[in-house]
Design goal:
The protein has about 240 residues and is of the alpha+beta class. The chain contains three helices and 15 strands. The strands form two sheets. Strands 1, 2, 3, 4, 5, 6, 7, 8 and 9 form a nine-stranded antiparallel beta sheet that branches. Strands 10, 11, 12, 13, 14 and 15 form a six-stranded mixed beta sheet that branches. This is STEEP1 domain-containing protein.
């Protein structure tokens, strides 16, 4: 079990940081606090090789809540091999450095988000994640789906800040999986098939599903209830096996 470490990178000559200008980022998958930084990541340059955000720790203050993720060797398309010193949250890497003494910190593309439902629950309310939102163009609610194909059955996997992850039995590149998705979400959301529509996104792994006559809050609540039901059924199945 790796020891938890808190690493702080600061600029010795930098100005004092106003707490109102700090940005808190969480692991996109676990929701755990990943780091706090004095700049919006979206304003940082990105690497061409992997899209990682580049943070110069001589210019910006970063407080990381990570563990040592070990060393990983990555082979790039041009044939070169890159050495990365990984920084993890649990088993998931969220950042790396190419040299332990370097002032450059790389935040992995798609690893973190500013969204945290944990904060919302502590405040006594439940926020709807950004992956479920109302389209300004159509006025309909849209869900961003991410598919995991060739599963033994079609089922919900989890809801993150950016996607509703779904396991499907067919190939994600094939439009035949749309029928699986229609059947699944009609049941989960308790709507008619005519209230659902779906289209491809930029990646073959992703789809955009539109839902009529439901609010984002209603959709998220029904997804949560479905996930709870699945977890309960799995627990009961495990118990029966041990009886």
């Amino acid at each position: 079990m790796p020891k938890r470490t808190t690493l702080t990178f600061t600029s010795e000559d930098g100005p004092r940081v106003d707490s109102t200008r700090l940005y808190v980022y969480h692991c996109k998958y676990s929701g755990r606090h990943a780091f706090t930084i004095d700049v919006d990541l979206r304003k940082m340059p990105r690497r061409r090789t992997d899209g990682a955000y580049v943070v110069n720790t001589d210019e910006h203050t970063v407080k990381l809540y990570t563990t040592d993720g070990g060393v990983k060797f990555i082979k790039r398309q041009n044939g070169t091999v890159e050495k990365q010193y990984r920084l993890n949250l649990g088993q998931l890497p969220i950042a790396y450095k190419s040299d332990l003494n370097s002032n450059l910190l790389y935040i992995m593309d798609g690893a973190v988000t500013t969204y945290s439902n944990q904060n919302a629950r502590r405040a006594g309310r439940l926020l709807v994640p950004p992956c479920i939102s109302r389209s300004e163009r159509s006025g309909l609610v849209e869900m961003r789906l991410e598919l995991e194909d060739r599963s033994h059955r079609c089922t919900l996997s989890r809801v993150t800040a950016d996607v509703v992850r779904v396991h499907v039995t067919g190939l994600m590149a094939n439009d035949a999986v749309h029928e699986e998705l229609f059947d699944l979400f009609a049941k989960v959301l308790n709507v008619r098939l005519s209230q659902l529509d779906i289209r491809r996104a930029k990646s073959s792994r992703n789809r955009i599903m539109t839902v009529e006559s439901l609010t984002p809050e209603q959709i998220y609540e029904r997804l949560r209830e479905a996930l709870k039901k699945q977890a309960t059924e799995r627990a009961e199945k495990r118990q029966r096996r041990h009886m």
